[in-house]
From TrEMBL:
It comes from Caloramator fervidus. The chain crosses the membrane at residues 46-67, 115-137, 228-258, 278-299. Belongs to the binding-protein-dependent transport system permease family. Its main location: membrane. This is Oligopeptide transport system permease protein. Keywords: Cell membrane, Membrane, Transmembrane, Transmembrane helix, Transport. One of its GO terms (cellular component) is plasma membrane. It comes from the Bacteria. PANTHER family: OLIGOPEPTIDE TRANSPORT SYSTEM PERMEASE PROTEIN APPC (PTHR43386), OLIGOPEPTIDE TRANSPORT SYSTEM PERMEASE PROTEIN OPPC (PTHR43386:SF22). The lineage of its organism: Bacteria, Bacillati, Bacillota, Clostridia, Eubacteriales. GO terms for biological process: transmembrane transport. Residues 107-296 form the ABC transmembrane type-1 domain. The keyword Glycosyltransferase does not apply.
Length: 309
């Protein structure tokens, strides 16, 4: 052979400089989907600010009323309509009640409505949309026509009809939100399931004989979790604003209970004389809605694989 006597020698090789050894190394470490989403979320300052504010206002609503020396219902006309001071940080209302304490207590009611509506939105919307999208055909057609019909009925009509049956108050608002707020989630989940149900992993599960509900809950829904979390986050401020609006027009909780909408409604009578009584409840509603919206926008970007760099 022509190359039989060919030998390798040290002179044939050139040592690679140290700075060139890492050229072909992987720059970004291996990460799971959720680790990558959290890393990108942390880079979004508005989203992180919204997250911290949501945690802060939730903790304040839970423990705040216990730390205040006042309660939300006691009246003292000798200190009525006093402006913000050291004794009363946000001032007092026409009945001498501490506005700061009433805002803390109102946060409980408003956030409870928002969180309960979101939980109902999550459970009902996922099951309804998942079943509709998975089975398709006539089942999908009938279920979506029901959704369209419920969409056509105004929320205010729901509340009025429920008030006639079970009376006014927090239960009426929560029940009305339970009827109407899952509709958007159902449509989003249905669209996701329709796009995923022809994938290979779903066909493999069917071939192995997996039950329909197992395929929906264990395979399709987890792969749709990104849009679901974003929709869930954005539904909370919508529910809070709906509760505030209904309480503002007199269809919410009854006195002496205080939600942010009730506080704003009571402050309307003295808006021009004591504007601070409207300012603080409106500020609480605005900041909370902004925080949830910033968080929702950040989650949408963080959970979108197309945004990955």
């Amino acid at each position: 052979m022509e190359y039989a006597n060919f030998e390798l020698t040290k002179e044939m090789f050139e040592r690679v400089p140290k700075e060139e050894k890492n050229i072909h190394e992987i720059v970004r470490p291996s990460e799971t989907y959720w680790q990558d989403a959290w890393r990108r979320l942390k880079k979004n300052k508005l989203a992180m600010g919204g997250l911290f504010f949501v945690i802060f206002i939730t903790l304040l609503a839970i423990i705040g009323p216990y730390l205040s020396p006042y309660n939300y219902y006691s009246q003292d006309f000798s200190i009525a309509n006093q402006g913000p001071s050291r004794a009363h940080w946000f001032g007092t209302d026409p009945f001498g009640r501490d506005i700061f304490t009433r805002i803390l207590y109102g946060a409980r009611i408003s956030l409870t409505v928002g969180y309960v509506a979101s939980i109902l939105n999550l459970t009902i919307g996922i099951l309804y949309g998942g079943i509709s999208g998975y089975f398709g055909g006539k089942v999908d057609n009938i279920m979506m026509r029901i959704v369209d019909t419920l969409y056509a009925i105004p929320m205010l009509l729901y509340v009025i009809l429920i008030m006639v049956v079970i009376g006014a108050g927090l239960k009426s608002i929560i029940f009305a939100l339970a009827i109407a707020y899952w509709l958007s989630m159902a449509r989003i989940v249905r669209a996701q399931v329709l796009s995923l149900k022809q994938q290979e992993f779903v066909l493999a599960a069917k071939t192995l004989g997996a039950p329909h509900m197992r395929i929906i809950l264990r395979h399709l829904i987890p792969n749709s979790i990104g849009p679901i979390i974003v929709t869930l986050t954005l539904s909370v401020p919508s529910a809070i604003f709906t509760e505030a609006f209904l309480s503002f027009i007199g269809l919410g909780v009854s006195a002496p209970m205080a939600s942010w909408g009730v506080l704003a409604s009571e402050a309307m009578e003295t808006l021009y004389v004591y504007p601070y009584q409207m300012f603080f409840p409106a500020l609480a509603i605005s900041l909370t809605m902004l925080a949830f919206n910033f968080l929702g926008d950040g989650l949408r970007d963080a959970l979108d694989p197309k945004m990955r760099k």
